[in-house]
């Protein structure tokens, strides 16, 4: 009898504990076979390439998140998210173990939520919500995020919602000894969501090791009309002369942010980017996404000339189940002005492979891909 009573008591305690806390293991694997033109070959020429790589929509990840109910509408929350390359299993995000996210926080129904650790920047949070792909995963359909950075180490982020309004504040510590505010990123955002309409605006500033600055202001919106969802966003990002990001995993200012710099440029560079697109629910299991990104650049380099980057893409996505989908896509990226020969521009991720600064250059790249994605 005593054993039965103890067993029942133990079960009751376990049930009570599980009711106060939760833990979720989740992941995404998105893999594609992709063809692209005008890739730089080992001999320095330009040629086409067919490769297996991470997919068009999302980077591969394995994560765990959870919370503990502290009573009174308060909770402790955490999230750890590892990124990896689905084509070869190698680590992603500079090789950091939890390079996608790693934070611990406090949540209150009255006061909002405060999180500390490696997190998405608020520009990525807000503007990503008004991107047709929610920020893509091929370089050619995500290049705009490199202008303001994706994730930031050593970050405090506060969020609070009141009805349809949400406010978000970010402060990322620079942690540069003896250099005051060097390496600090700070920002604020305000969003409104009600029914089919969502709009938001964001301000963000980052300082490098010498306190040169990147300043960003942006806004966007989305509208649902029947089976379609329309997206529009605009932002301007200005970099001081010589603005630079420290090398990945160096511990330096703005390391591990995936943000581009303005090294070697004696002038302030300004990027004005707008993105528009539509998501069409063509059938119960079929979605079609079309998007266009355009960047008008002032002072591409010290010459003071202008440049342009533009990408048009289309993706058709068929859902085999709630968790698995297959897709096919096409895209075309074009460069104009000095951006064709710029080694420090937004297209640095692909600039060298377009022949920038070399004997051979190209002003466009075409891409085509088929892919499979599974969420668990």
3D structure, described in words:
This protein has four helices and 17 strands. Residues 5-19 and 343-353 have low confidence and may be disordered. It is mainly beta and 376 residues long. Strands 1-3-4-5-6-7-8-9-10-11-12-13-14-15-16-17 form a 16-stranded antiparallel beta barrel. It is 9% helix and 53% strand. The chain has helices at residues 2-20, 122-128, 139-142, 348-351, and strands spanning 21-40, 46-54, 61-71, 74-83, 101-108, 112-120, 151-162, 165-172, 185-194, 197-207, 213-225, 228-239, 269-283, 286-298, 307-319, 324-337, 364-375.
Q: Could you name the ranges where pLDDT drops below 50 across 5 or more consecutive residues?
A: 5-19, 343-353
General shape? globular
Strand order of the largest sheet: 1-3-4-5-6-7-8-9-10-11-12-13-14-15-16-17
**End-to-end gap:** 43 Å
Q: Please count the helical segments.
A: 4
Summing up helix and strand content along with how strands pair, one would put the structural category as mainly beta
Helix and strand sequence: HEEEEEEHHEEEEEEEEEEHE
Helix share bin: under 10%
Largest sheet: 16 strands, antiparallel, barrel
Number of strands: 17
Mind telling me the C-alpha Rg? 22 Å
Name the beta content range: over 45%
Summarize the structure.
The protein is mainly beta and 376 residues long.
């Amino acid at each position: 009898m005593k054993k039965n009573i103890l067993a029942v008591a133990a079960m009751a305690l376990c049930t009570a504990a599980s009711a106060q806390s939760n833990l979720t293991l989740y992941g995404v694997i998105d893999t594609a076979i992709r063809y692209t033109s005008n890739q730089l070959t080992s001999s320095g020429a330009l040629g086409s390439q067919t490769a297996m790589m991470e997919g068009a929509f999302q980077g591969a990840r394995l994560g765990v998140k959870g919370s503990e109910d502290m009573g009174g509408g308060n909770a402790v929350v955490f999230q750890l998210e590892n990124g990896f390359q689905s084509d070869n299993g190698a680590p992603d995000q500079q090789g950091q173990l939890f390079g996608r996210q790693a934070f611990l926080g406090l949540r209150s129904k009255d006061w909002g939520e405060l999180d500390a650790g490696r997190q998405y920047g608020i520009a990525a949070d807000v503007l990503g919500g008004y991107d047709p792909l929610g920020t893509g995963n091929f370089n050619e359909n995500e290049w705009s995020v490199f202008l303001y950075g994706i994730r930031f180490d050593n970050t405090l982020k506060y969020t609070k919602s009141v009805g349809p309004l949400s406010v978000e504040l970010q402060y990322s510590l620079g942690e540069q000894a003896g250099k005051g505010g060097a390496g600090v990123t700070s920002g604020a955002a305000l969003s409104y969501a009600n029914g089919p309409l969502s709009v938001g605006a964001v301000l963000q500033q980052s300082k490098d090791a010498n306190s040169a600055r990147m300043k960003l202001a942006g806004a966007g919106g989305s509208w649902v009309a029947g089976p379609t969802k329309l997206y529009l966003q605009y932002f301007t990002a200005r970099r001081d002369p010589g603005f630079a990001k420290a090398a990945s995993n160096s511990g330096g200012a703005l390391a591990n942010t995936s943000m581009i710099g303005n090294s070697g440029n004696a002038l302030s560079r300004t990027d004005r980017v707008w993105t528009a697109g539509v998501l069409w629910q063509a059938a119960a299991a079929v979605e079609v996404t079309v998007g266009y990104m355009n960047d008008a650049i002032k002072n591409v380099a010290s010459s003071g000339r202008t440049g342009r980057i533009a990408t048009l893409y289309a993706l058709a996505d068929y859902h085999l189940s709630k968790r698995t989908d297959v897709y096919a896509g096409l895209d075309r990226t074009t460069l104009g002005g000095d951006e064709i020969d710029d080694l420090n521009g937004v297209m640095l991720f692909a600039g060298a492979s377009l022949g920038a600064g070399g004997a051979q250059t190209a002003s466009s790249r075409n891409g085509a891909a088929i892919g499979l994605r599974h969420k668990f």
